Amino acid sequence: MYTGPRSNKPGRPKTLDGKINYKKLDLTRMAKMHIEGLEGTAYTLIAYSKTLKQKVRLVIWVMPNSKHKLFFSTKTSMSGEEVLRTYRSRFQIEFCFRDAKQYTGLAHCQARNKNQLDFSYNASFASQYVAKVMMKENGLPYSIASFKELMASTYIAKLIFDRCRSIPNRKFISHTIKELFGWHRKAA
Q1: Torsions phi, psi of 85, nearest 5?
Q2: Among residues 60, 92, 58, 62, which one has the least CA distance to residue 78?
Q3: Exposed end of the chain (fewer CB within 10 Å): N or C?
């Protein structure tokens, strides 16, 4: 953005002041940010986005391997630290929604009533939270897929032992497993 003095020439005043060269940053136009735990350096400035056709708060993160990442917000009153914090929390929220859709049935509800929809969404996120707590308590790495597989295997093993009662019968267990997994042949 051009913030210099206006020329007294006729016509529209100058608003843009060139493109940002990420290989040679003009540090006089941006502020350096000091954030703990951030490898590399980060700079912030207010720039104009051609695509959005408005001013944005831009954060340029130059990593130690000289690559860069851009983060922006259309709310120019935000600080650069707030923009980075918002992006970090946004991705955590997206991962929660992704896991809820894939593993806990977030998108499977067919209700139309607001209360029923609320219950379905709350049940989905609550089951995801319970799974996270159980994995943390048992020292398991966080993976909803592996946890779901573990719970299904535990349920099947419990079902087999419940059917066998106290005396394990190898022939009966083999038949039960085939029955549970659909491996037995059906008569033609």
Answers
A1: -60, -40
A2: 58
A3: C
CA dihedral for 162, 163, 167, 171, sign (positive or negative):
negative
Token code pair at residue 187: 């008569």
Residue 111: partners with Cβ closer than 8 Å, 6 or more residues away: 117, 120
Whether residue 13 contacts residue 4, with contact meaning beta carbons closer than 8 Å, is answered with no
* Cα angle value 137/139/142 (rounded, 5°): 95
5-17, pLDDT tens digit by residue? 888 888 888 777 7
The predicted structure's pLDDT at residue 118: 95
- CA torsion sign for 35, 39, 45, 50 is negative
